[in-house]
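Re: beginner question about structure tokens

> Can someone show what the tokenized structure looks like for a real chain? I only ever see the sequence side.

Sure, here's an example I had lying around. Input first:
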Amino acid sequence: MKNLKRIASEIKSGQLADSDLQEKLWDFICYSPKLPMRLHQDLLLAQASKHQLDVYDEFFSKQNLKVNFFKWGTGKTKILLTHGWGSKAADFHELITHLITLGDFEIWSFDAPGNGSSEGRLSNLILYVEAINQFQLTVGMPDIMIGHSLGGMANIYNINKLQKYPVVLISIAPLVDLTANFKSSMTSVNVAEIEQNKFLNQFEERYQKRTADFFLNDLYTYSENLNHLLIYEVNDEIAPVKDIIEFTKEFPQVVSSAFNDTSHTKIISDSRVIKQIMSFISYHQ
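And the corresponding structure tokens:
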């Protein structure tokens, strides 16, 4: 977190030359802060079997990254949990604990490239998706996919790309419009609109994709093919409620549930949210 604050401070100073600013924006947007593990998270990972998969980083390091996966249980129903930006597998502690206790599950989660304990200095949505792809190729298609924030978008992107469907998809405060998220982040450190547009143009050149392609409504082409629960916080400033509501209006088949007294971070550990997730899974098993 200190590194990200330093980067933000340098950008906000307004003293960087144009080329230096653009280079620094890549760090600001693509560096995922790493928060220390807590004791209860360490104890949770101690219960897991550990696995590594290689994910090729074509955007930054141009090499394979070791991505750490964790598994709890040997049940017949395979669950994959995908965390959000600046997060890690162990941040699902409360949900994983409930799944271990209450169901016949094989539970998997991972630290995405550039996040948590996995390799990589910088990360992005596509590296999240590639980690999910490698999991499916190596371990198999999960019956249940659960994603938070950027992880929710990554799950939907993955399904759109491979057209392989879990029985249940659960999205918790998913990002809907990645371009808007980038712009909001850059605005927060006083980056002028012309410089923001330069960065977005560089982004499109590097990825050979339009930033507009990272839009949940366009990625979600299979609403009839699975049971989907979307949970969100109405006061969320990271995953804006107006975007979530537009998504649910366009796809009324998605079961949606709103909360107004949690937060973007705390929603994954909220006991009411976990209860609803467990109920939804139980109903569709």
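Each token stands for a local structural state, so reading them left to right follows the chain. The mean pLDDT is 95.
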